Every structure is written in C-alpha cells, then in structure tokens.
TrEMBL record:
It comes from the Bacteria. Pfam families: PALP. One of its GO terms (biological process) is D-serine biosynthetic process. Gene3D superfamilies: 3.40.50.1100. It comes from Dyadobacter frigoris. Keywords: Lyase, Pyridoxal phosphate. Transmembrane segments: none annotated. The keyword Acetylation does not apply. InterPro entries: TrpB-like_PALP, TrpB-like_PALP_sf. Its cofactor is pyridoxal 5'-phosphate. This is Pyridoxal-phosphate dependent enzyme.
Length: 317
C-alpha cells in the first residue's frame, strides 16, 4: 500500500483501474435550486453509483491494488454501511472473502446489502475503539488484509475519481466544489483532484453540527473529537485520520457546519425537486451552500452527492 499522498498519475491510474466496474455518474442541475441558492449548482450524483455511494470507487481501487498474496486470506474493514458495501462488492468481484465489522445500530438497508454481496458481518458497539478492536481480532484469526475506510491512500485515490469526472464532464471551469466530510476520504480525494485537474477551483466541505470534529481538526491541525455526536447523517460520524487531515489542511479552503433541520430540509428539496433519492449525508453539502450564500452567490459550484442509501421506512420527512 502506498505511503505518500496520491499524485496526479496515481489518481489517473486508479480511474483506469476501476472504470470497468463503476458507473460514470451523471451531473444534474436544477433551475429551482439555482434560484434558491443564488448559485449555479452542478450535482455529481454518486447516489447512482454501484452500491449507491461513492465508496465503491475507493473500495475497488484498494482491493484491485492488492496482490494475490494480500488477497488470499480475504479482506476486512469496519464501517457503518457504505464502505462496508464497497469492500464486500469489490471483494466479490475478485473472488476474495470479506469480513466486515459493522456497528450494531447500522441501518438495516446497509447491513442487508453487505450480506447480499456475500460478506461475513460481525457486529460491535459504535465507537472507534470497538470497531478497530473487532477488526484486529479478525486479522489475528484469519490473516485477512485490513483496508481502512478512509485513512488509506488507495481509498483516497479512488474517491478522487468522482470529482475528476465532474471536472472532465463540464466544458467550463467550476469556481468551487463542495463535498461532505466524515472520515475525510471523499473530501481529501476531491481536493486533490481539484488541485491537479482544475487549479483555482476552491474546495469546501459540509459537516453536521452533530458530528463536528473535522472543523476543529482543520483549525487546530490535530485530530479532534466532536464535542457531541448526534446527527441524522449516519455516514459522517467518524473523525478524520492523519492522512486525510494532512491533505484537507493543505488543499481545502473551509468547512461549514449545518444542523439536522437544515440537512433534512435540503434532503427533502432534492427528493421533491430533483426526483432523486439522497441520504442525509449526501444532503449536507446543499444545506451548507444554502447557509453560506455570501460564499457561493453567483458562482459555478460542483456538489458531490455522496450517496442514496436511506432506510425508506425511516424517512425524516
């Protein structure tokens, strides 16, 4: 596994490697949401990606980059859902066994999908320590290769391909791109792609107030914990890693926090006006644009919709 921040060629190579297995997701626009925000918004729809989230990109790149020796005892990871599905999906593609640790309160839609890809699921309490402890036990017992959900350069290079496509598929330059931030794999990848393929395009992030650790880490330069963790955006609960924090501090302009009410309102607008299924974590960015009109007004803004894996029996509206 690589030990340095992915360069331009590394991201291009990752894109070539994963292209046969992923969708080149569409970019949608909405006149209504443009008027409401005062900006020109271009939505990169990773909710239409394989497994329903951008995580398929990083999971595939990480697994396709492993040697047969590293794959022979299977792979393991911990995740509340989307990365779990990505690793299960990618492992199935290469015929490797997947051992997935999931918090016991993960959405059932995500648990069922992981099992559907043939992975073996182990449940744990939802703390970073419990997750890592359960994975360590699996590695000890099986010899499986651990793939970190975000603090892994192959994963980051895979996630970077989403904004690379966004930049390539528009015939003009974006003023800004905004992505959600949890562990920072998508955000750090997004900022690298903007830096290499669209210099001058600023990168921002949206983060739930109920899991606001990235904004603190961004300011202090060390990994901070959120003052409290309570948000509907279940995909954004994890703190940053040292690899993602380094990239984010170098290439991201700012991080904005939004309340659960603002996330739900943005999510509802996307369902009603764009007719697309977006999970709360994917609506955080639109909420952040609405909340900061002075930053985005009159600008061309790329919005990464991270995923659409939502429990339809538990919609917040």
């Amino acid at each position: 596994m690589s030990e340095s921040i992915p360069g331009k060629e590394v991201i291009e190579k990752a894109h070539t490697l994963i292209t046969p297995y992923i969708h080149r997701t569409p970019i949608l626009t909405s006149q209504f949401l443009n008027q409401l925000s005062g900006a020109e918004l271009y939505f990169k729809c990773e909710n239409f990606q394989k497994i329903g989230a951008f995580k398929a990109r990083g999971g595939l790149n990480a697994i396709l980059s492993l040697s047969s020796e590293q794959l022979k005892n299977g792979v393991t990871t911990h995740s509340s859902g989307n990365h779990a599905q990505a690793i299960a999906f990618a492992a199935a593609k290469v015929g490797a066994k997947a051992y997935i640790v999931m918090p016991e309160n993960s959405p059932s839609v995500k648990i069922n999908a992981v099992k559907g890809y043939g992975a073996e699921v182990t449940f744990c309490k939802n703390t970073p320590e419990e997750r890592q402890g359960a994975v360590d036990k699996i590695v000890e017992n099986t010899g499986a290769t651990f793939i970190h959900p975000f603090n892994n350069y192959e994963v980051i290079a895979g996630q970077a391909t989403s904004s690379k496509e966004l930049i390539e598929d528009l015939d003009f330059k974006l003023d800004a791109i905004i992505a959600p931030v949890g562990g920072g794999g998508l955000l750090s990848g997004t900022s690298l792609s903007a830096h290499y393929f669209s210099p001058g395009t600023e990168v921002f992030a949206g983060e739930p107030e109920g899991a606001a650790d990235a904004i603190l880490s961004f300011k202090s330069g060390k990994i901070e914990k959120a003052p409290f963790v309570k948000t509907i955006a279940d995909g954004l609960l994890t703190p940053l890693g040292d690899k993602t924090l380094e990239i984010i501090r170098k290439y991201v302009k700012d991080i904005f926090t939004v309340s659960d009410e603002e996330i739900i309102a943005a999510m509802q607008l996307m369902w009603e006006r764009m007719k697309i299924v977006v999970e709360p974590s994917g609506a955080v960015v639109l909420a952040a644009v609405f909340k900061n009109p002075e930053i985005f007004k009159g600008k061309k803004v790329g919005i990464i919709i991270s995923g659409g894996n939502v429990d339809l029996g538990k919609l917040p509206f």
